[in-house]
TrEMBL record:
PANTHER family reported for this sequence: FI03373P-RELATED, MULTI-COPPER OXIDASE
UniProt record similarity statement: Belongs to the multicopper oxidase family.
InterPro entries hit by this protein: Cu-oxidase-like_N, Cu-oxidase_fam, Cupredoxin
Molecular functions (GO terms): copper ion binding; oxidoreductase activity
The protein's name in its UniProt record: L-ascorbate oxidase-like
Keywords: Copper, Metal-binding, Oxidoreductase
Pfam families referenced in this protein's UniProt entry, alphabetically: Cu-oxidase_3
Species whose genome carries this gene: Paramuricea clavata (Red gorgonian)
Length: 129
């Protein structure tokens, strides 16, 4: 290893630690050698967050404000299960959700874009997609 590579790795590790403490950053990293990886367990529900000193109920993914990052190999197939655990009894239409996948190009799969009632039907409460 060169010194430059080692310094770069140390710098990345420091940045990762900063992100982890600020954003509850928990990436899902593929360790499979084949082309299929199952990333099950994207649970959507209400969570209490304090933003600018004010507690607020917000949608969360696995308890965090930001969903986990999926890190996979080039051309690897990702299978993700999304579970809607949101149940708003006062406003049931507010309980339907869809998931948008930032950074993942959807070729010939427009129903995976995450725009509810436009490119896909939203996932109802206590249902999975």
């Amino acid at each position: 290893r060169s010194i430059k590579t080692e310094l770069s790795r140390q710098k990345d590790a420091v940045q990762f630690k900063l992100l982890k403490s600020r954003l509850n950053y928990n990436p899902i990293i593929s360790r499979q050698k084949d082309k299929t990886e199952t990333c099950s367990g994207f649970f959507l529900h209400w969570s209490l967050f304090t933003l600018r000193q004010f507690p607020q109920l917000l949608f969360s993914v696995n308890g965090g404000r930001i969903g986990p990052t999926i890190i996979a190999k080039y051309n690897q197939l990702i299978v993700a299960d999304v579970y809607n655990l949101i149940n708003d009894k006062e406003n049931p239409d507010n309980s339907n959700v869809s998931m948008h996948w930032h950074g993942m190009h959807q070729f010939n799969t427009p129903w995976m874009d995450g725009v509810g009632m436009i490119t896909q039907l939203p996932t109802k409460p206590r249902d999975a997609f």
